[in-house]
Design goal:
Layout: H1 8-15, E1 25-30, E2 35-40, E3 49-53, E4 60-63, E5 70-73, E6 83-87, E7 94-99, E8 108-111, E9 118-124, E10 128-135, E11 140-147, E12 153-158, E13 164-168, E14 173-177, E15 184-189, E16 199-203, E17 208-216, E18 219-225, E19 232-237, E20 245-249, E21 260-262, E22 275-280, E23 289-294, E24 301-307, E25 309-314, E26 322-326, E27 330-331, E28 339-340, E29 347-351, E30 356-358, E31 361-363, E32 370-381, E33 384-389, E34 392-396
């Protein structure tokens, strides 16, 4: 049996098309026009929607690890202590619950993926950036340490692996932060001259660091920041929004088993969009991860795909679906790996993480890597043979 609809040549061609990040929801505050808004990471400007009015100086905000509650802290409000509380994402209204114990101000907060701990940054004229560790639900924080290296730190964010980063508008650079000492290590310049309030948060579905970088006079951009180099990559020019923004990505940690879904699948002949999920462990050394594709047409042949790079290509090779991978894409088409959905419209494959397919052979997945998966399958629409894809699944391995 030949699987010509998704040949190596077609995959290679699709991989050269414009890549797109996972589509995740964001909420934020625009301090320039006093509005609380929502949008997404794929079309930040086009999907920007005002939820309600909010004229408070809530320069520090983030969702909790379950992505169900948005917490916020007022910025510098001396001589009063900063209030902490929650923001209703359906109205934009802030409900104060008390004042912080410990910090005298806040330039940023971020949730820890452990689901309990929160990290807060405070700027001090003498001590530099002060790192605090605590519980946002009580407002009680304990000082970790301080460091003058980064200068004026404007926001803080933590990835799904517990790595902490800050953005400095003194040096216009990204720094990693030691969670036990507060010491900052320069990663690199963003390449953007940021001024005033800024926003930064990780998308825990793929650990992309997103930022709203404001330069002044209504001019700004929505960008991703490379945590290896510090360089910001423009995704959308936000100048038409005339906005100075703080943002948070609404993605829970560890939702739905190992990995997080991204990208949008197109409905197949059943009327539903097929989906991919994982069961088992994201610990690479355990080598215990099983992929499942659901909501498939009955009796459909298909196989799983994988890459370390996400992407978006509509209708590759005449398919009715969307390819959500790019770069070096491997196909699980070895002995016993091509599947059939049977009478239940689903198929699964237990992966061997030490033999992950790539165009040049197999490689081993190791801790610290993020791999993306998708399933391709045959379908028939109106009597004509075609193919389709599930959505994508991003797994950060430990």
């Amino acid at each position: 049996m030949k699987y010509t609809l998704l040949s190596h040549a077609l995959i290679a061609a699709a991989a050269t098309a414009s890549a797109a990040s996972a589509q995740s929801t964001l909420f934020g505050l625009d301090f320039r026009l006093d509005r609380f808004f929502t949008t997404d990471t794929q079309d930040f400007v086009g999907n920007f929607t005002t939820v309600g009015s909010n004229n408070l100086s809530l320069f520090a905000l983030d969702f909790d690890a379950s992505a169900t509650t948005m917490w916020a802290v007022e910025g510098p409000v001396a001589p009063a202590l900063p209030a902490y509380g929650t923001i209703d994402i359906t109205t934009g209204l802030f409900t104060p619950l008390g004042v912080l114990t410990g910090p005298l101000s806040a330039s940023g907060i971020t949730a820890d993926p452990d689901g309990v701990t929160w990290w807060l940054t405070e700027n001090d004229a003498t001590a530099g950036m002060i790192l605090w560790r605590g519980d946002i639900t009580t407002g009680v924080f304990t000082m970790v340490g301080s460091d003058v290296t980064a200068g004026l730190v404007i926001d803080v964010a933590m990835d799904s692996q517990g790595n902490l980063f800050v953005h400095s508008i003194t040096t216009d650079s990204l720094y990693s932060v030691d969670k036990t000492t507060g010491i900052q290590t320069l990663i690199g310049a963003t390449g953007v001259a940021a001024n005033f309030a800024q926003g930064m948060d990780f998308d825990w579905s793929d650990d992309t660091l997103y930022a709203t970088i404001y330069t002044g006079g209504g001019v700004g951009q929505f960008a991703s920041i490379d945590t290896a180099t510090g360089m910001a990559t423009l995704i959308a020019d936000t100048t038409t929004l005339n906005a100075e923004m703080e943002v948070a990505v609404q993605v829970p940690i560890g939702s739905g088993g190992p990995g997080s879904n991204y990208c949008t699948a197109v409905a197949n002949s059943t009327g539903a969009a097929a989906s991919i999920s994982a069961a088992g462990s994201n610990v690479a050394a355990s080598n215990s991860l099983t992929l499942t594709a659901d909501a498939l047409p009955n009796g459909a042949f298909g196989f799983f795909l994988t890459s370390t790079t996400q992407g978006f290509v509509a209708n590759p090779g005449g398919s009715t679906g969307n390819l959500c991978l790019s770069g070096s894409i491997g196909r699980y088409v070895g002995p016993g790996q091509i599947q059939n959905s049977g009478m239940i419209g689903s198929f699964s494959l237990a992966l061997n993480l030490t033999q992950t397919p790539q165009p040049s052979g197999t490689v081993a997945i190791t801790a610290g890597q993020t791999w993306n998966f998708q399933a391709w399958y045959r379908d028939s629409v109106g009597g004509s043979a075609t193919s389709n894809f599930t959505n994508g699944l991003s797994v950060a391995f430990q």
